[in-house]
Amino acid sequence: MKTILQEISLFAIQSNGSTFSDEQRNSGWLGSFPTREEEIQLAERRLGVELPSDYKNFLFITNGFFTPNDATEPTFEPADRISYLKDIDSFLLEIWNEAPLMHIGEQLNRAIVVGGLNDEQYFLLIPPDSSDGKWQYWKFANWIPGEKRYGSLKDYFTSVLDLMKEVS
């Protein structure tokens, strides 16, 4: 995943360098310093879940990642800032828990916001339920009709890089 994040960083900075800080332009990196195991454990205890391994690996690469393109992608938050959507945006949950949207609302009620706290979209990790035991990865915004699902965090970042290359 580190290679994909490095490619996203370099491509974004080369495409629109004025958007980024001097430090980001000089380093060619939109990420932060890696997190420590203790920080992940604190987040897991606070949330009452064991985070998925690919997300923990992401945090070991970078404890946060700046949005690569004009705010159409969320900025990923440091481990100490992730939280349940219900604690961040209860109004959104009210809307999505009305019929006929309840099937989405049920998922959002369990969602953890790992990206987009100050953006127009969220990146959500949804803990496994009893039906399949797999984490879900969603990009969710009011300008997207419903959720955009990904198979993994790597799938999401790969799609970001592919889209950046496509539109350039």
UniProtKB/TrEMBL annotation:
Superkingdom of origin: Bacteria
Location of the Knr4/Smi1-like domain: 34-163
Protein name: Cell wall assembly/cell proliferation coordinating protein, KNR4-like protein
Organism classification: Bacteria, Pseudomonadati, Bacteroidota, Sphingobacteriia, Sphingobacteriales
Organism for this UniProt entry: Mucilaginibacter paludis DSM 18603
SMART domains reported for this sequence: SMI1_KNR4
